[in-house]
Amino acid sequence: MQHALKKTVRRITPAIFALSTYIFLDSTPAEACHKYVSPYTGKTGCGAQREDRKNRSFSKTGNKTDKPPSKTTGTASASGGSGSRGGSQATPASVNGRLPWPSGMACPYREDPDEFARWRGSRVDALGGWASRTSWAAMRRYFGGHLRRDFVSKAPIMVLGLPLLTNESRGDFAGCTRGKYDAHFRNVALKLKRYTSTTKIIRLGWEANGNWYPWSIKGKYSEYKSCFQRISRVIKSTDPSIKITWSVSGSKDRKNYNALFAKAYPGNAYVDYIGMSLYDHWPAAKTQAVWDKSYQPALDTIMSFARKNGKKVGFGEWGLSRLKGGGGGDNPLFIRNMYKFFKENASMIAYELYYNCGAPDSSWRIYPSRANPKGSAEYRRLW
Do 50 and 181 share a domain, yes or no? Predict the structure, then answer.
């Protein structure tokens, strides 16, 4: 009798455990329910939680087994015009979850790239981040074990911003050229060398044409180029598999890119990709006319320069902007125009990473969608 009872208990215990687990997953205290924020729609509260549960299923162990709700095929409502370049007729380019160009997100430690991929409906090919510029020690520490966890294990392409100088050596292009900082970059390259299964891309001294970084050019074109060339050689001599991007700010020199390129470009021997970071500000592209006048010519110029030099173009950061005094805010038109540009130049795009960084309600975020719901919906529709 006792033996038979034990057999019965062993037989029914897994079923009871599975049922209790499922009930637990489907039961949320009222106070937690009201605080719920959907990672897919940005909606809040108990209704949003019920909607997500309706569109997703759970296995008996509590693991998510289905994708988030499928993307809508309709056109998202948008502010601003819809001229010939960025009209609402843009259609998604992904085929079987793949885009014709390498696409991804920055700050994978903010949101899980797998969730981001399921949300937008296409694979994440590339992930981006930035090493600290506060000190040489802080810069080196960035290249620790977290890279495998946050980047290498989650996407085939890793794009990392690497300071050309730090706050400890602001403007010291001469010291850089003499080899004063070689050891720091050799240390970084050695740490990256261990990652053999991923494409490693360094945005070396990104946005040097601005005036906000320790390596900003500020008219010292010759000194800057000599420094860049030396560090590029140091990195590549240590790990030849590392690719170097020379990346400019899209918020500066838009009307004078040809002059900038002529003065500041380090040369083809030191650069693998031409790069740009671009945000919807100064001026905000709220109408197609603004885009056509301010943004499209700059993009055309950098693409022409890249083709002339036999290089692809990388966008290590781009996105919406709600910055006071110049940002376009929740602007689907900007998203649509960027998408159209990427699609038309797919064979020339080395990578593009949406700047999904900062707090969930920060100026740039599109996932979760509560910060920029219209732009987020348009991005999800197209990507």
Answer: no
d(CA 284, CA 287): 8
Cβ atoms within 10 Å of 167's Cβ, excluding its own = 14
Neighbour tally for 103: CB within 10 Å: 27
User: Which letter, b or e, does each residue of 224-249 get, where b requires 16 or more Cβ atoms within 10 Å of its Cβ?
Assistant: bbbbbbbbbebbbebbeebbbbbbbb
Q: Are residues 115 and 164 in the same domain?
A: yes
41 and 138 belong to one structural domain: no
Flag whether 160 is in a domain: yes
* pTM, to two decimals: 0.78
Write out pLDDT tens, residues 180-227: 999 999 999 999 999 999 999 999 999 999 999 999 999 999 999 999
Residue 69, both tokens: 């709700």
Considering only CA atoms, which of 202, 199, 38 is closest in space to residue 126? 199
Give residue-wise pLDDT tens across range 298-350: 999 999 999 999 999 999 999 999 988 899 999 999 999 999 999 999 999 99
The CATH number that applies at residue 231 is 3.20.20.80
Domain of residue 34: give its range.
12-70
Report yes or no: 315 and 277 within 8 Å, Cβ to Cβ.
yes
